[in-house]
Amino acid sequence: MASVPVYYFSSVSNLTGRFAEHLAERTGRAVFNLADSAVRRGETDGPWVLLTPSYKAGNADEVTLPAPVKAFLRSPANRRSLVGIIGSGNRNFGDYYQAAARELAAASGRPVLFEFELSGTPEDVARCAEILAELDAALTR
Which residue from 84, 76, 128 is spatially nearest to 104, judged by alpha carbons? Predict the structure, then answer.
């Protein structure tokens, strides 16, 4: 069974990146960093999942979705083949916790598959891996 790749962005704190790396280690799933300009300018060749942090910290005018994620989603092919979203956030953001994943899900009609805080826990990685395995199975049917 083929594994749907995960495309992610992580700031210099690398909290989201650590989660993506743990997910790849646990599952063997391909993960691609949108901070890499070659990845960001590319197009996917099939279904993929986005892992994105939220940066809105309480100001309604702040940008929620990171610029590299927006750049990747400018491609019609990438938008069409997006099948789900994983959100990373900080509960200190209050009402804006997971804002990027939730706003993108509403705009794209794709589901939020999983949410975690900061870099997640080992249990978060395990649960996310299970959800992605279920998605892989559903897409092969």
Answer: 84
Mean pLDDT score, 3-24: 93
| Beta carbons within 8 Å of 21's beta carbon, 6+ residues apart | 31
* Inter-CA distances, 71 with 11, 12, 37, 62, Å: 15, 18, 10, 17
Q: Where does residue 141 rank: exposed (0-12), middle (13-18), buried (19+ CB within 10 A)?
A: exposed
Q: From residue 129, how far is each of 59, 67, 106 by CA, in Å?
A: 33, 26, 23
What local confidence, expressed as pLDDT, does residue 1 receive?
A: 62
Nearest to 114 by CA among 89, 141, 81: 89
Residue-wise pLDDT for 48-102, tens only, equals 999 999 876 555 666 678 889 999 999 999 999 999 999 998 888 888 888 889 9
Handedness of CA 38, 43, 46, 50 (dihedral sign): positive
What is the mean predicted confidence (pLDDT) over 106-110? 95
User: What's phi and psi for 88, nearest 5 deg?
Assistant: -115, 140
